[in-house]
Amino acid sequence: MTVTKVSQAGLSLTEAFSGVLQTNANFVDQVIFGPAVDGRAWNGLWNKASVFSSLMLATIEDEGSNTEINIWDLTQQSAGSPSTTVLATVDLSAAATPTAIAASMGYLIVSSEDGIAIIDPHSGAWAERTVGWPRTLSTSTVPALTNNDVNAVAAGFSDQPAFDPRTGGPMPTFGIGYGTGSDVAALIKDDGNVYDEPGTVGNVGVGFINGHFIWAQNDAQDGLLSSTQKISVLNADNFDAKRLIRDDGASFGLIADNAFSVRGGSLSSASSSGLNSLLYADYFEGSAGINAITNRTYTTGYMVGDIRGAWLANSDVTDRSYKANTLTKTGTITEAAVETSAELKGYSGWSASNYLSRASDADWNSIGTGSGYLSVWMKSSGNTGHSWLNGFGNTGGTLQFAIHLSAAGLAYFADDGATANVGASGGPALDDGVWHKIDCVRISSTERYVYVDGVLHVSSTTDAGSVSGTVPWQIGYGPTGTYAADAITLSLAHFSTTTPSATQIRQMYEDEKGMFVASAECLLQSGSTDAVIDVDVDPLTNKVLVTQTDAITIFDGLVVDSKPTVNSGSSEKGKLWGDLRAEQNSANAYVTAPAVDQRQVNEMVRGLASDLPKGIDLSKAKAWLRLDGTGTIAIVSSYNIKSVTDVGTGIYDVFFAIPFKSDAGYLMVSAIGGTAADAVANSAATMTRHSLRMRVYARADGADTDVDPLMLVFFGELENE
Questions:
Q1: How many independent structural domains does the chain possess?
Q2: What is the C-alpha separation between 627 and 669, in angstroms, rounded?
Q3: Angle at the Cα of 44 from the Cα atoms of 575 and 670, rounded to 5 degrees
Q4: Which residues pair with 653 in a beta bridge?
Q5: Cβ neighbours for 189, distance < 8 A, ≥ 6 positions apart
Q6: Cβ atoms of 290 and 688 closer than 8 Å
Q7: Which of 267-271, 549-553, 654-658, 662-666 has the lowest mean pLDDT?
Q8: Are residues 96 and 198 in the same domain?
Q9: Which of 256, 291, 323, 397 is most exposed, with the fewest beta carbons within 10 Å of its own?
Q10: CB within 8 A of 430, min separation 6: which ones?
Q11: Contact 239, 246 (CB under 8 A)
Q12: Structural domain contains residue 612
């Protein structure tokens, strides 16, 4: 055990501490929670003596005939070790087999073979809540669950949460995953209703993201699903679902058969075959799902939507997409680390005698005038001429859809169809011996874009016409028998018939670029298995804690950030809160915390998230909107607003071009309606980092009404700041 104490400007900071909370082989699950995590005070009770603190850990233990819940203070330590004195212990005598725990606003939800139990401290002591709302539920309560066997739980907020007078903050919404029966999951709303979703059970997780409910499901297309409607408008069983990840289609990924975790715009899931990393931003605003697969052998990088080929991912010929479009190797291709001691491989030695190809295939030879997306990472030490990098085309060169590097070292998108040959090129010179990513997006035959290192450099609206015919795929050398990619190294070459948004392209670049530096690790770090048994996305940094039986790895994007040593026995679960990490293994519960004043950090985060800035300064607004909300809605003027959707009379969804860092943005309604007396913004208007749902009602009768003008101003911190 290492103990460190630091001082800054005469201030003695809390020592770093680490150690065992409790030696126990019966731990089932854990959750880090508290006002610091929620970003909101609990009605002033967050510092009540001997009840709770700003940051806590709750653990559940299977004691054979009952469940024991212990609440630990993560701000307390002594001589470099965490405090082993619990704030409280609660026993659930009826729950013989606990399965999971989650928390929000002080409410703990615990699942077992006996339904779900709600535990909170809001009456002055930690205790099970069986009256009021929320409360313990089973098949014999009102409202009722459809089955008592529950094996997954989640706690979070609706896109329009109700007010909770008990805490003075928003009322949580809960999700559960059934272990048996005809329903796969249920949504326990903050209005006291329970709605069930039919499906094949075997659930390994439930969660919330951007106002939507997510669950894992076992069926003919194993994967993760999400409600298409936001939580606030769900009002019946059997709600519509949208598949986020499936093992045989878009968006392609590994079966989430062990766990998943979701925070902000990131979702990670644990599979017996490896790790999924899903970038969720803008998913419900029409953009594609983008997912990366990582195991001990390869990482795919981010695959977009209906991926048709994911090549050069630590193999020269293997396609890592579900399409299995294996390439044929002509000659010899050189494989080597992209940089010294890096785990990702690059491929070079391209010439007329050394290249990769595949015969014309329906996966790409009939996109017609529709969409297509190409990407590749490349490093050129000075190509001698025009170079073919990745794409398809016919032998005569009259049809092409490919990424080139021009003789001048510029990214070049060849979109040559039946109507015209369109070559879109530009951006910085890339023949500088440095790794770059090129993304080429074709929305249609009359709209295309070229991005370099996540930045848009070229756009074109020339009509290329249909791209269909006998068109083989080639990497490193053109099908016309020309354009060898000499002196160029390639990696992570992709093709999809789904196009990403500009935001997603930037995010993919940011998360992938760390793999192209010396000594970069990007693979699972277990010495024996690809199986991931647990994941946790850090709410502060979006880093992902990946747990395998013999390895704990923290990923930042797609790159290994650190590799904490497994404390004892076999790893089981882990949780992150910044640099604080809670570990559950087969022998004990273990905590390690950084050398900072943890109380001060927690309260700073809580305060920033829960209090309006003093003195509104309009010059510091991060987004604003003037909207004509009558008839066909129209944005009259705006800043940092991507789009507005008319959800219904007087109800608008506003989407930000650059999202906020968290849900803790601030909204000010500066004017609304024809006159100030005619209409007023509903106090239930709720903002997430990506969007706002605004309801407007007439003051006279309280009914929702369309208005003009509707003026909104937003404050907070954007994700790129």
A1: 3
A2: 12
A3: 95
A4: 645, 693
A5: 158, 173, 195, 231, 234
A6: no
A7: 662-666
A8: yes
A9: 397
A10: 378, 380, 405, 409, 410, 411, 436, 438, 452
A11: no
A12: no
Residue 625, C-beta contacts closer than 8 angstroms, at least 6 positions apart: 635, 637, 638, 639, 641, 644, 654, 710, 711, 712
Whether residue 1 lies inside any domain: the answer is no
pLDDT > 90? residue 83: no
Give dist(CA 661, CA 720) in Å, integer.
8
DSSP states of 652-705: EEEEESS-BSSS--EEEEEEESSSTTTEEE-TT-EE-SSEEEEEEEETTT--B-
Cβ–Cβ < 8 Å for 503, 511: no
pLDDT band per the 50, 70, 90 thresholds, residue 614: very low
d(C-alpha 545, C-alpha 553), whole Å: 6
Residue 2 maps to a domain: no
Residue 211 in tokens: 């106002």
Residue 715: C-alpha distances to residues 340, 466, 550, 637, 686 (Å): 44, 46, 44, 17, 14
Q: What is the largest CA-CA distance in the chain?
A: 80
Tokens of 601: 């950090």
Condensed to tens digits (0 to 9), the pLDDT of residues 454-487 reads 999 999 999 999 999 999 999 999 999 999 999 9
> Is the CB of residue 126 less than 8 Å from the CB of residue 51?
yes
Strand-pair category, 107-112 with 100-104: antiparallel
Q: 429: which residues sit within 8 A by CB, 6+ positions away?
A: 408, 409, 410
Q: Are residues 508 and 590 in the same domain?
A: no
- Among the three residues 496, 516, 536, which one is the final residue of a domain in this structure? 516
Q: Which domain holds residue 353?
A: 303-516
- Rounded Cα distance between 303 and 321, Å, is 8
- Better-scored residue on pLDDT, 611 or 163: 163
Task: Examine residue 143 and say whether the peptide bond preceding it is cis (omega within 30 degrees of 0).
Answer: yes
Q: How many CB atoms lie within 10 A of CB 419?
A: 15
**Type of residue numbered 444:** S
Domain boundary among 460, 483, 516: 516
Asked if residue 321 and residue 216 are part of one domain, the reply reads no
The answer to whether the beta carbons of residues 543 and 526 sit under 8 Å apart is no
- Nearest Cα residue to 355 out of 485, 493, 470: 485
What is the residue type of 510? E
For residue 637, list its beta bridge partners.
626
The amino acid sitting at 7 is S
Token pair for residue 670?
């500066």
DSSP 513: G
Q: Which of 286, 321, 327, 288 is nearest to 307 (CA)?
A: 321
- Given the structure tokens 């060169």, which residue do they identify? 397
Residue among 115, 152, 118 nearest 133 (CA)? 118
Instruction: Say which DSSP state 512 is in.
Output: H
The reply to whether 426 falls in a domain is yes
Instruction: Verify that 473 and 550 share a domain, yes or no.
Output: no
Our measurement of the distance from residue 236's CA atom to the centroid of its chain's CA atoms, rounded to an integer in Å, reads: 27
Q: Are residues 382 and 263 in the same domain?
A: no
Q: Say if residue 163 is in the same domain as residue 239.
A: yes
H-only helix segments in 422-522: 502-512
CATH of the domain at 480: 2.60.120.200
